[in-house]
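Researcher: Sequence recovery benchmark, item below. Answer with residues only.
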């Protein structure tokens, strides 16, 4: 090729991906597939540390559902994800894993796991795809600052804690939130985003257990209730109501219902109320008839002795007191108002939230980079050219069931491809 002959050599775009988790590894794969020269910077000594602990090491990698079904599982900013999830669906993620040596299986609730049920196989599949794309991985490389030029309007690279400066055509931030800090999620991305002028909503625990004010919940530590309904209200508005499994703990309540409810819990919840329906399959009339039968069948016994016919033994023993009744009351002497108080307690047992558990224990973080300043079509910053965001760093979070990991993969893939093709 001769100078001045009218042809130019096409230079590879240089892409820096900051963070080697689910979003970062997928962003690196996508950018490399699109022809970019990619360097992934991971602060830890290995990739995918948070992936290793998801699903208790089994890694619920996605959910085999439709786009519309998926978005219904995203309480915060679901419309922002429409483009990313349309471009890379759960089924695309399943195919990606299969193509990279990680067979998958669909289990109850359409939750998708690696067939081996080993999270390490998911990380290996992503690493395999990065290696095939020629991605350069640098471990123990923590970014301390972004390189910003033109009064902060253009991102041209990153600076490491070591002082080394790395230039790039684009930088993709995939540093996660604040949950599971031992995996490296300590808010690095928040600080980098704020330094570039982006609004970052404070990170709070989501998909988390909660501490309760009542002592009876802690006395039931270890008891699991199935097919109960948990309702969260704020004033007259119902914020959440679902049926499922709830677990009592040494600090309050946990289990699938509690974790999902926490996604809908406002930042300030002083005016919120929780109620537990222990008998959701019965109408109030059916429950009253059931109580009358139980009491009539044992007229000389104490009230507390007949409650195990309706509840697990440990809960049954304390239940009359929870309704403001004396468990030593003889069944034949239970009045109609007292019976109504039992029925009310069985179908609307109040629980008072004291606080969320520490964010370090949460599954994901709610909060992060305000999505109004991010293009939903590309994951690019609307204010800083050459800067992209993906994964948990964004102010988007979802219920359990593989949805949060799929969000990380889909936004990471869109960011990587967009950065490479810009």
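Model:
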């Amino acid at each position: 090729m001769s100078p001045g002959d009218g042809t130019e050599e096409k230079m590879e775009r240089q892409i820096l991906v900051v963070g080697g988790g689910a979003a970062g590894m997928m962003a690196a794969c996508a950018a490399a597939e699109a022809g970019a020269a990619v360097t992934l910077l991971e602060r830890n000594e290995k990739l995918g540390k948070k992936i290793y602990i998801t699903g208790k090491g089994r890694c619920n990698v996605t959910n085999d559902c439709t786009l519309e079904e998926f978005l219904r599982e995203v309480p915060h900013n679901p419309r922002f994800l429409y483009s990313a999830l349309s471009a890379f669906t759960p089924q695309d993620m399943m195919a990606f894993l299969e193509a990279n040596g990680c067979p998958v299986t669909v289990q109850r609730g359409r939750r998708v796991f690696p067939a081996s049920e080993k999270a390490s196989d998911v990380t290996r599949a992503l690493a395999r795809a990065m290696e095939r794309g020629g991605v350069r991985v640098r471990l123990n490389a923590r970014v301390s600052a972004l390189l910003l030029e033109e009064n902060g309007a253009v991102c041209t690279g990153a600076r490491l804690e070591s002082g080394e400066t790395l230039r790039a055509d684009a930088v993709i931030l995939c540093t996660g939130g604040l949950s599971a800090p031992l995996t490296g999620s300590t808010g690095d991305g928040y600080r980098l985003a704020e330094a570039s002028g982006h609004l970052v909503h404070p990170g709070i625990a989501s998909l988390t257990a909660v501490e309760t004010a009542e002592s009876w919940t802690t006395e039931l530590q270890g008891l699991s209730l199935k097919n109960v309904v948990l309702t969260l209200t704020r004033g007259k508005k119902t914020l959440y109501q679902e049926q499922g499994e709830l677990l009592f703990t040494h600090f309050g309540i946990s289990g699938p219902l509690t974790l999902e409810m926490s996604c809908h819990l406002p930042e300030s919840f002083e005016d919120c109320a929780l109620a537990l329906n222990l008998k959701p399959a019965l109408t109030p009339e059916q429950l009253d008839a059931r109580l009358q039968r139980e009491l009539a069948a044992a007229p000389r016994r104490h009230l507390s002795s007949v409650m195990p016919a309706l509840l697990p033994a440990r809960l049954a023993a304390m239940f009359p007191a929870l309704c403001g009744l004396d468990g030593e009351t003889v069944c034949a002497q239970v009045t109609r108002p007292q019976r109504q108080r039992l029925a009310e307690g069985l179908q609307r047992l109040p629980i008072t939230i004291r606080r969320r558990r520490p964010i370090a224990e949460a599954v994901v973080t709610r909060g992060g980079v305000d999505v109004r300043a991010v293009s939903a079509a590309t994951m690019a910053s609307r204010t800083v050219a050459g800067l992209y965001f993906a994964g948990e760093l964004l102010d988007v979070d979802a219920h359990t069931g593989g949805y949060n990991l799929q969000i990380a993969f889909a936004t990471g893939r869109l960011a990587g491809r967009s950065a490479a093709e810009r």
